[in-house]
Amino acid sequence: MLNADVAIIGGGPSGSTLGAMLKKYAPDLDVLILERERFPREHVGESQLPLIGPILDEIGVWDKIEAAGFPIKIGATYRRGTTDELWDFEFFPAKEFTDEPRPARYKGQRKQTAFQVDRAIYDDILLRHAEGMGCVVRQETAVRQILNDGDRIEGFVLDSGETVTAKHYIDASGNAGTLRRAMGVELEEPSALRNVAFWDYWENADWAVEIGVGATRVQVMSLGFGWIWFIPLGPTRTSIGLVCPADYYKTCGKTGEALYAEAIAAEPRIRALVGNATREGELRATKDWSYVASRMTGPNWMLVGECAGFADPILAAGLTLAHAAAREAAYTILEIERGELDPDWLRAMYGETQEHRVRQHIRFADFWYTANGRFTDLKEYTREIARDAGLELDANQAFQWLGTGGFVNDGFGLAGTAGFSLFAVRLLTERMVERGAELAVAQNNVFKLNLQRAEKTQVPWYKAGRVHAIPCYRRGGKTLPMTAEYKAIVHALNFDSKANRVLESFRRAALNPALGPEPETNYWTLIEGLEAMVRDGWVQASVVKGRPLPELMVPTVTDLIHPNVEG
Questions:
Q1: Pick from 151, 205, 208, 204: which is nearest to 182 by CA?
Q2: Cα separation of 554 and 442, whole Å?
């Protein structure tokens, strides 16, 4: 019999991050991680987003990851639709990226970049770090049976015959969903997109661009029957994969190997990069359609990471979703252990947060495929996406549909969707649907707060090892949290509805260090917040003749999204 406070199935990024986070803030907790494989082991999903950086830093592993020498991901180069145009989306402007020795510290420009990781190495570092933090790690140990009494878990039976008992049980087993399946939790597939992926690893492929010391952009290239990813994982190793509709694969009459080879040969940019490279020669395959669990918690258990939901990899969100969920699951357990907040509320908020985040990424991926113009059979599906959001739209109206996704409650202090800022979403959408996406803050001169029929409630804010209950308004599936940023916006709108007066109030509020150290950044955060509130219906924007429009030079973030200049 093995006893623990927290028993975790799975030692991948979700399980190891969860374990390390628990030990950081509650060293006395007994945390057991059960991993069925022996690390290091191969795994797909190598490209990250910058939102992972602060989590790695919080658990004290960022320096170890940086020391591994993984390429720095500064953004991505896309070939979209049917055109030959290449365009770059950058987390940090390449022209401003400064050469610095590696390994570097987590500060300055490195806070706005990400990694491209060899998962065999990356996952091993994370698991060893969790063990170093005090977690008990059992590799090559599979959970064979879940013991339960109704919806409450009583223990795990291991392949060794041992039984594990704990206060909290965690499923971080990825798409295996060991606990999820045993508890009968169903999966919903909110997207009609059904894709398959084929990939292999290459030695000595050229990088498309090398920026500073070890920085580059991943390549995402559209084809007539799918898209290719090209992700450098180190000085000589590169992951190259093909994603295509499952129906196309079934009807094309070609093997996965033949289809993969055809894709590499058909894409001139990728073909040139692998001209002097060699394949490892083991083609891997998986289905990658999106799903979300019907529920993510029970009385004493939680689903974390990919077992709870998966979004199409076009935006490289997988690891971000995994790390973020692990952090918030750890915070939830820590708060339940303190006994100061309602545990049912904590679990419910954890589940709601994860579901919203996964669905947001799924919608954004759906938007990509529909607006991309390559998959012509998805034109009808555009209406299906829109109907699901209560709208009747075609692909050329995609931005208005995208605006229904919930810009405010994607993350506190970030007005955006799927991890992108609102201004970046605007320009990204312009690139994809080839039409302007006007911002309300620049086109109206009256902004009236609209909180009618909104329910006052609370939402969680996860910070410094604690879950804070933040007052908020809810209406029609949208949430307006009263964080410092949105409080400042509401205060300005209560004082005056005239646009220029509102912006004057923003300038004063931006000096408040509670919003951040840089007043100009704070100011644009408030502008983005106001735009998000308009799109979510919390503010009614209008034009009164005779009054000037706001004197506002809205950023176009052209430094971050622009035509590719390297060719």
A1: 151
A2: 7
- Rounded CA-CA distance 441/57 in Å is 36
Residue 425 domain boundaries: 406-556
Number of domains in the chain: 3
- Asked if 304 and 14 count as a contact pair (C-beta separation under 8 A), the reply is yes
Alpha-carbon gap, residue 303 to 173, rounded angstroms: 9
Mention every residue, 6+ apart, whose C-beta is less than 8 A from residue 449: 490, 493, 494, 497, 538, 539
Which residues have a Cβ under 8 Å from the Cβ of 177 and sit 6 or more positions away? 171, 185, 303, 307
Question: What gap in Å lies between CA 33 and CA 540, rounded to an integer?
Answer: 50
Burial class (CB in 10 A: 0-12, 13-18, 19+), 269: middle
Tell me: the pLDDT tens digits for 117-172? Answer: 999 999 999 999 999 999 999 999 999 999 999 999 999 999 999 999 999 999 99
CB 461 within 8 A of CB 481: yes
Tens digit of pLDDT for each residue in 398-426? 433 343 344 454 554 455 555 555 555 55
DSSP-derived 3-state class of residue 402: helix
Report how far residue 484's alpha carbon sits from residue 513's, in angstroms, rounded to the nearest whole number.
10
| 305 and 427 inside one domain | no
Q: Are both 220 and 257 inside the same structural domain?
A: yes
Only one residue has tokens 């799924």, namely 362
